[in-house]
Amino acid sequence: MDTAAKSFLQRLLDTPGPSGYEQNVQKLWREYVGAFCQDIRADVHNNVVATLRGVENFSLMLAGHADEIGMVILNVDDNGYLYFNKIGGVDPTILPSQRVRVLTKNGRMRGVIGKKPNHLLDEEDRKLPKIHELWIDIGAKDKADALSKVRIGDPVVFGEDFEEMQNGFAVARDFDNRVGCFVVAETLRALSQIKGLKATVFGVSSAQEETGVWGAGPIAYALKPALGIAIDVTHATDYPALSKNRFGNVELGKGPVLTRGVKTSELVYEMLEQTAQQNGIPYQVEVETGRTGTDADVMADRGGGIAVTVVSIPNRYMHTSTEMIHLGDLDNCVKLLVAYIQRLEDKTDLIPR
Ligand SMILES: [Zn+2]
């Protein structure tokens, strides 16, 4: 990963953007890809599409969702404590005592999700908390003070920003799925250098995935690509407490993860696997049995049916305040997509025969 890419990755990860509030992430993405894509468009749902025109008619959509999970302010009580609901799959049991950032009109405001000290707990306090029993303390004097800074409907993120660890590992709260938009952008950047690219590539930084996979569908309908590839994170199973016999074998640092299964195209899988093997790119395989839980699900149903697959980055501790990936998997994912996309042309047949 070169310096420009690393700095872009860091800025993407350090910019909060829960579903429906992705604007700042999208702005960053648009600026970055604007240096090498001519045609960049945004839509009403906050999706952004950057196009690289190929010389033939085959087209594909590469989608990485820009949004992350988070919370949203629901009520402020008389003492100025903020109550909230969740955006996407937030586990309330990990929230107490976390520092959060409330994304106000005037910038980010630090808050703390309060927690009764261990010394003062009754037996009944030891049960798992429900989301409406938790509160955010922003150090407000009272309700009026809080409401002079925070509005009902302001989004909130928990967890911290990007930090590199040893051996190529890194942590951040939001690898799910800033790494997807990162891979899409870097794939576009590499492909923009290639003369005579046959396929047209629609690179999409999609919105609202975490709340029900809503953003990518209308875009796929509008673009009508022959193929849709979702770039997302998947569960790594290489840490204690996860059974490989139950969840499959996915490890950090062992390459991008290809998907085989019911809804994803077997022909695309075969071609991706062959591309990886021919180019000496490490890869892993995971299995889906229907829904993939990614943008691929909504792409598949659009415009009379689009061939889809998912290429994933292995991710430990998904949807917690600290997810972990291996940075080498990002580079290998870009390499694989760049090599694969150069093979796509009008003759590419995606109908199983
Ligand atoms: Zn997610």
Characterization of the model:
- By secondary structure, the protein is of the alpha+beta class.
- The protein has two domains: 3-68 and 173-341, Aminopeptidase, CATH 3.40.630.10; 70-158, Peptidase M42, domain 2 (Elongation Factor Tu (Ef-tu), domain 3).
- It is 25% helix and 26% strand.
- The strands form three sheets. The protein has an eight-stranded mixed β-sheet, with helices on both faces.
- A hairpin with a 5-residue loop joins strand 1 (39-42) and strand 2 (48-52).
- Helix 1 runs antiparallel to helix 4, helix 4 crosses helix 9 (327-341) and helix 7 (266-278) packs across helix 9.
- The mean pLDDT is 95.
- Zinc ion binds next to loops.
Distance between the termini: 39 Å
Range of helix content: 25-40%
Gyration radius, in Å = 21 Å
Q: What is the count of helical runs?
A: 9
Would you identify the CATH architecture of the largest domain?
3-Layer(aba) Sandwich
Strand content: 25-35%
Sketch the major β-sheet. 8 strands, mixed
Give me the CATH fold name of the largest domain: Aminopeptidase
Which geometry do the CA atoms define? globular
The overall strand count is 17
What structural category arises from helix and sheet content?
alpha+beta
The quaternary state of the protein chains shown equals single chain
Q: Briefly, what CATH class of the largest domain?
A: Alpha Beta
Give the SSE order as H and E letters. HHEEEEEEEEHEEEHEHEHEHEHEEH
Bound molecules: zinc ion
**Looking at this structure, what is the CATH superfamily of the largest domain?**
Zn peptidases
Mean pLDDT figure = 95
Unreliable stretches (pLDDT < 50, length at least 5) are none
Strand order of the largest sheet: 1-2-12-3-13-16-14-15
Taken together, the total number of domains comes to: 2
